[in-house]
Amino acid sequence: MNQERLMQVLLAPQISEKATFVAEKNEQVIFRVASDATKPEIKAAVELLFKVEVESVQTANVKGKVKRFKGATGRRKGWKKAYVCLKSGQEINFVEGGNA
Q1: Other C-beta atoms within 10 Å of 83: how many?
Q2: Which of 40, 79, 85, 93 is such that its CA lies 20 to 30 A from the CA of 54?
Q3: Is residue 94 part of a domain?
Q4: 99 within a domain of the structure (yes/no)
Q5: Beta strands per DSSP E along 1-100
């Protein structure tokens, strides 16, 4: 796969209460990814950037919320997130800025 493309697939780690609960329980990490990213691209990007082995990838499309401002309705942009399951013994630590 094209290395430039892989660098643009992962947008940011999803840091939330649910994400930390999932990370501790299932050895999974949640990322915000490009909306046209595929599972093999996400797997290759995580393995390239963090030097870990990925077991599987699950994706979910998050719909944007409907918001109102001064009577006019608008919609936030939708986005895609990926649940990346790491092989046992593998870990990504974002606090230290890389592989632990």
Answers
A1: 19
A2: 79
A3: no
A4: no
A5: 10-13, 28-33, 54-62, 66-69, 72-75, 79-86, 92-93, 98-99
State which residues form the domain around 77: 3-88
What is the CATH number for 75? 3.30.70.330
54-64 pLDDT, tens digit per residue, is 999 999 999 99
37: number of Cβ within 10 Å: 21
Q: What is the pTM of this model?
A: 0.83
Distances from the Cα of 98 to the Cα of 32, 86, 95, angstroms: 17, 15, 8
| Count of domains for the chain | 1
pLDDT tens readout for residues 39-50: 999 999 999 988
Q: Given the structure tokens 């691209």, which residue do they identify? A: 41
Helix (H, G, I), strand (E, B) or coil at 69: strand
